[in-house]
Structure formats: structure tokens, C-alpha cells
Write a structure and sequence with these properties.
The complex is a heterodimer of chains A (191) and B (136).
Chain A: H1 2-49, H2 52-58, H3 61-67, H4 72-106, H5 108-111, H6 116-143, H7 149-169, H8 171-186
Chain B: H1 4-13, H2 25-30, H3 33-52, H4 56-69, H5 74-84, H6 97-120
Classes of the chains: A mainly alpha (191), B mainly alpha (136).
Chain lengths: 191, 136
Amino acid sequence: MIQLIFFLAIGLGLFVALYFLMRPAASAQGSADELRNARLALNALQTGLLSGEVVHRIFAKEDLEYISEGPVEIRDMFLAERRRLALFWVAQMRLQILNLRKFHLGSARFHAGLKMRTEVRLAAEFLFLLFTCRLLWLALYLRGVYAAPAMVERATATAERVCAISETSLGFLNRSMDSLRNESVRNPTLS
Amino acid sequence: MERPLDRLIYLASTRDYNSGIYYHDGLAAQFTEEVASEALADCHRQAFHELLASPLKDLVSQFESYMESTPAQPKDFIATWKRIEPYRVAIPVNTDPLSADFLFSNFKIALAVLEARLQSHPKAEPGAWPLPSLGQ
């Protein structure tokens, strides 16, 4: 009986070892997806959501001043449209920040040599940014597009800092892509 | 063409709906089809970004001038643009959703402004609201 338990324990041990040996293949696939999603999130933030001209124009008061000279119905329509756009902006920014955070929580440390201090700072920035996005969404929803201009500026500035650190973390991906591109130019049979 | 709106509409009309490639016989003859297409795409993107950065007052003024440059009656022009929304196919490819949505929203508001102006005062300074009537 003791022998049976002993061999069962060995069998279980081997099974557990097999499970852990199989795991890296699955996480490599997950890691590639995380990298891809992080790159897409970063692009979405840098080229659209944090692009100065659009964000500035959504919250620009000079448009409200101009519209306020006209009929009330058009002013109401303008305010409703701006609020819709502002809510869309915050929701999209939060979504992309969550994608970036997932990358940093998961596989960033395997690819980027971030210092412990930078990682802690980044974690704090993520926490602050996600909280600010929630608050901002609520403020815009309840009080309209011109409710919290200072919070918009803070959220944008923090998101830009997070993007800059993420850009460094994902820099190796650009370098790999560049070397692959150069290689394919030198050796056209590769492409 | 000075106005970004005119350029946006014109350049979008040189793009093939199916392939997304821009065509211009004159430019293609002078350079190559590929170079001409790339140059037109660049100009299209630039016009789009200029429009994005335009204040609403400026956009209304551009719309008004564009409307006057077409043979359509202002009333018909506004009704058609509101119904068909041709601006939705006039933006460059790979435009991010927020920028596209923002411009469409501004176009919608600009059309509403023009319509209101047309109803209360047929001719006024470009981009300006009509003077309030004595009853207001």
C-alpha cells in the first residue's frame, strides 16, 4: 500500500513537471499577442488619442463661444456632440491604457530592461491614470465637456509619460523589425 | 485650391473606391502612377489635418464658400449633404476613429449652422451668425 502511494506520488510529480514544461509554449503565443496588442495600443494613443490637435479642438472653448451666438437648439446639439466625443475619447484612452498595462504586467520585463524604480513609477502612473480616466468620464458625463479642463490636461500628460516608457519597452520590437527589413532588402529571397 | 475643404473633397474624388489608389493623368504622365498616387495621398492627409485643426467658425465659412462654388441651390445642397453625408467617404484611409468622428461631428454642426442661417438670413458675412431679429 505504501509502495502504491509512493508510485502514485511520483506519477503525480511527473505529471506536474510535464504541465510546467508544456507551459512556456502556450505563454510564448500569449506573449506574442500581448506584444502585438501593446504595439497597437501605443500607436492608437500616439497617433490618435493623444494627438494634440484633436484633443485641443474637442475641448476648445472658442467653438462654444461661436456657437453660443446662434440658436439654442444648435448650441444644445453642439454640446451633446462634444460630450459624446469627449466620452468616446476617455473610454478609448482607458481601453488602450489597460492594454498597455497588461503588457507591462505580463511580458514587458522579459523584453525590456526596465529598472525597478521605473517599474514602480510606471505602476503608480497606471494607477493614477486609470483612476483619473474614471473620474474624468464621470465628470464629463454629469457636467458636460467643459467640466474638468485641468483633469483633461493631467490625464493627457500622464498618458504621454506612460507612452514614452512603453515606447522604450517596445523599442526592441522596432529594432527587430528594422533589422528584418534591412535583411530582406539585402536578401530579397527572404521576403 | 486654398481651402482645405475644397482640397479634401477634390482629392477624395481622385481616389478609386475599390483599390484606394489615387489617379491623376497629368501627374502620372509627368512622373509615374505610383509617385502621383503617393503625392495625392499626402496632400489628402494634409488637407484632412488642416480641417481637423480648423475652428468651427472657420469650418462654417469654408462650407459656405464651397457651397457657393457649386451650381446647387444652397437649400438643396444642405439637404443632400445632410441626407447622403458624402463627407464620410472623403477622409483618407487609416484615419483614426476619433479624428474621423470629430470631423464628421463638426461637419454635422456646420451644416446645421448653415441651415439656420439660410432660414433666418439668406446672405450674411461668411461664417457669421445672422443678427438677432427685433423680436428676439
